[in-house]
Specification:
348 residues; 6-stranded parallel sheet; 12 strands
Length: 348
C-alpha cells in the first residue's frame, strides 16, 4: 500500500492547525509502517489522501479518478468554520459550502476530525461514507521541559509573580479574539498572550485594529512562534483560554491538554463526546461566565482538571491515529478488490 498525501499551499497553511495535521499524518503513517509520498507527480500510489480544497486540489482529485485511484478526502473545512474569518467570508460562505460538497462528493471516503463535523457534513447531504478521526497529537513534543519553560519566560520577560493566560489561533473573529481582549481589560493584573498570525490584508478592519493597537497594555500579539518557546508557554502559563465559537476539532486544545495545562473553552457542540465541563476542562457560555472562571482557575480556587485532560490527549496520540487511518485505507482498498472480482465474474 502506498499513499499520496497531498496538501495544497503547504507554506501558507503551515501556521494553521491544518498544517500541523499534515505533519501528524506523516508521523502516523510512519508509526504503522505505511509507505507515503508527498510528490504530486507520483503515479504509482494506491490512495490519494487529500487535505485541502483549492483549485490544484480539485485538479488532483480529477487526475486521480482518471487514473483509477482511490481518493480519501480529509474534510478539515466546513461552511461553519469558514464564516467570520477572512474579509467577505460570510458573503461567500454559501458558495464555499456548495464547492466543498461538490469536491467532497468525488471521494471514495471522507475523514473528518470529530463526530460534530461528521454530522455537519452529513447534514449537507453528502452520501460518501464518513468517519471521524482526530487530527491527533504528538505527546513527546509536549512533554514537560523546564528548559522550554525558561525560554518562554525569558522571551517574554515574565516575572515570577506574574500570572499568564495564553491562546493560540488565527486572527479570526470566529476564534473569539474580541472576547479575549475584552476579558483582558477586566484583569489588568494578568498578562494575556495570543499566539498566531494571519496576514493583515486578509482580515476585517475591526480585527486588524485590535491586533495592531486597540487592545489594553496587558495583551500581547507576538505573532506565530514555534518550537521551544510556544511549547514552553503551553506548560508554563497559568491557563489556556480558547474562546472560539466554531471548530472542526481544535488542534491547539490537544496541544494544551498534552502539556498538562488547565484548559478553558467555550461550550460549543464540537467538544461533545471528548471534553467534559469540570471533568477534563472548564467551559463557559459567555464573557460573564469566562470572567468568573478565569479568576477562579488562575487563583486556584476550584479543582484543577489538567491530569484528566492529559488522558484525553493520550487517547488521541499519533500512534492511535495511525491505526485508525490504516483501517480506513484497508477498507477502501478492500472495497476496490471486491468490485474488481465482481467485474471479472460478470465478464465470465
Amino acid at each position: 500500500m502506498k499513499v499520496l498525501l497531498y496538501f495544497e499551499g503547504e507554506k501558507i497553511l503551515a501556521k494553521s492547525g491544518i498544517g500541523r495535521a499534515l505533519d501528524h499524518q506523516k508521523r502516523a503513517l510512519s508509526e504503522v509502517g505505511i509507505e507515503y509520498t508527498l510528490d504530486s507527480d507520483c503515479t504509482d500510489y494506491d490512495i490519494l489522501h487529500i487535505n485541502t480544497y483549492g483549485i490544484n486540489s480539485h485538479n488532483m482529485v480529477n487526475k486521480a479518478k482518471k487514473m483509477g485511484k482511490k481518493v480519501i478526502y480529509h474534510a478539515h473545512s466546513t461552511e461553519e468554520d469558514f464564516r467570520n474569518s477572512f474579509i467577505g467570508s460570510n458573503q461567500i460562505s454559501p458558495l464555499v459550502k456548495k464547492y466543498l460538497v461538490s469536491l467532497y462528493s468525488k471521494a471514495d471516503y471522507l475523514i473528518t476530525p470529530t463526530p460534530y463535523s461528521k454530522d455537519l457534513l452529513e447534514g449537507y447531504g453528502i452520501t460518501v461514507p464518513i468517519v471521524s478521526i482526530s487530527n491527533g497529537i504528538d505527546l513527546d513534543r509536549f512533554k514537560h521541559s523546564v528548559d522550554k519553560e525558561e525560554k518562554f519566560r525569558e522571551y517574554f520577560n515574565i516575572k515570577p509573580e506574574q500570572k499568564v493566560i495564553i491562546c493560540v489561533g488565527l486572527y479570526f473573529e470566529r476564534k473569539g479574539i474580541i472576547d479575549f481582549v475584552e476579558l483582558a481589560e477586566k484583569f489588568p493584573e494578568y498578562r494575556f498572550i495570543w499566539f498566531g498570525h494571519t496576514p493583515m490584508y486578509s482580515i476585517p478592519k475591526a480585527i486588524r485594529a485590535i491586533v495592531k493597537d486597540e487592545h489594553p497594555e496587558n495583551v500581547e500579539f507576538p505573532g506565530y512562534i514555534k518550537g521551544d518557546i510556544i511549547e514552553g508557554a503551553y506548560s508554563a502559563a497559568d491557563l489556556f483560554f480558547f474562546p472560539s465559537y466554531e471548530e472542526t476539532e481544535g488542534i491547539v486544545i490537544l496541544e494544551a491538554l498534552a502539556s498538562k495545562q488547565q484548559v478553558l473553552v467555550r461550550d460549543i457542540p464540537v467538544y461533545q463526546g471528548w471534553l467534559v465541563d469540570k471533568e477534563n476542562c472548564y467551559m463557559g457560555k459567555n464573557n460573564k461566565e469566562f470572567a468568573h472562571l478565569i479568576e477562579e482557575l488562575v487563583e486556584k480556587k476550584i479543582p484543577d482538571t489538567s491530569l484528566a485532560g492529559y488522558k484525553v490527549a493520550k487517547e488521541k496520540s499519533i500512534e492511535h491515529i495511525g491505526h485508525e487511518l490504516k483501517d480506513v485505507y484497508e477498507k477502501v482498498l478492500k472495497n476496490e478488490s471486491i468490485q474488481n472480482k465482481e467485474q471479472i465474474h460478470q465478464k465470465n
